[in-house]
Design a protein that fits this description.
The complex is a heterodimer of chains A (204) and B (168). By secondary structure, chain A is mostly helical. Chain A has six helices and no strands. Chain B has two domains: 83 residues, Rna Polymerase Sigma Factor, Chain: A (Orthogonal Bundle); 85 residues, Arc Repressor Mutant, subunit A (Orthogonal Bundle), CATH 1.10.10. The longest helix of chain B is centred in the last third of the chain and has 22 residues. Classes of the chains: A mainly alpha (204), B mainly alpha (168). The interface between A and B is large, with 51 and 67 residues.
Chain lengths: 204, 168
Amino acid sequence: MDFEALKNKWNSENPAEVNIPSTIARLKKAQHPLEKLRRTMKNECWSQLAAVLFAGAIPQVFGLSPAFYVVYYTAYSMLLVTSGYYFYEFYQFYKEVGLYHADTHESLWKIYYELRLNMERYQSFGFLLLPYFLVATALLGYDRLISEGKTLQQITSQQQVIILLVTLFSTLLAIGAIVLWTRYVYGKTAREIDGLLKEIKDEI
Amino acid sequence: MDNDKESVFLKLVHQHKGILHKVSKMYADLPENREDLQQEIIIQLWKSFSLFESKSEFSTWMYRVAINTAITYFRKEKKRTRTFAPELSTDTADEIYDAGRDEQLEIFYQAIQLLGPIEKALMFYYMEGLSHKETALQLGISEINVRVKLSRTKEKLQNLIKKQSHGF
């Protein structure tokens, strides 16, 4: 096939099957993988925000003794500050992901870099929440112990081992779930873009 | 103000709708997938329109956005029965019959489907008549890299056509 000769036919092709809408509002909802990712992020952000706000009401919901409020809300204020930082960073990523006006290599590299960075951010945010949950659970547990008229000294060695194992197991489970969820949401797109980057930079 | 911007944008896209047609035809095999891809490209163009600097050609900017959108549109599509003789193709009944459609061009488009996303971009810029330098700028790679990759891609395409049809 003579590609040079084909160029004339290519140039004179009639683009009849292209439908340009009369207004932008008439366009269908975007189905591009990065647009879907943005939608997932937006939905997740609302549920994360709701969870953070709910955490503020945990002492009242679970009837924590007011004597522990100061400890609880100190931990909660740290949660608020770190969440604020992460939400801001997630928003920046949400705003910028999927702008394609730069050259192909730069666009791909930017998307890939931002995706990987966001995966790390997401994971570290999740890991940062773990100590907060540990403090909250410990406070609720200790409060219950006191209300039953017991002290920490009365916890048997066997119970201490169980507490340690449960904490260890649930921490590992939470870390595993965070890593798997991040890979599920972002991993496929990141791998596909990585493949494109390898293809485009496959130097001679 | 926004309505003005929107109508200017839609007018420009309309003037350059050939780019939408060609890019979608290279990156999507079936008419319904092509229509979806065209929509995605228009959405991305609109999203980035405020960043378009009028000192560059609209078509040059549109090439970039269209190609970048198409190569990252990873949707798996149902493949049509792979035959390069258009009259034997079994999945074309829903396509609008166009007597003027060129057989060689159809064979070319069908063979293109077997190339990788970056190879398709190289062939697109080549067919649009961009120089190696211009293609290098659009893709963000070196001119030498474009020359070598394009030569390999053309050879690959020739072999694909020869292997699966009678050749031209």
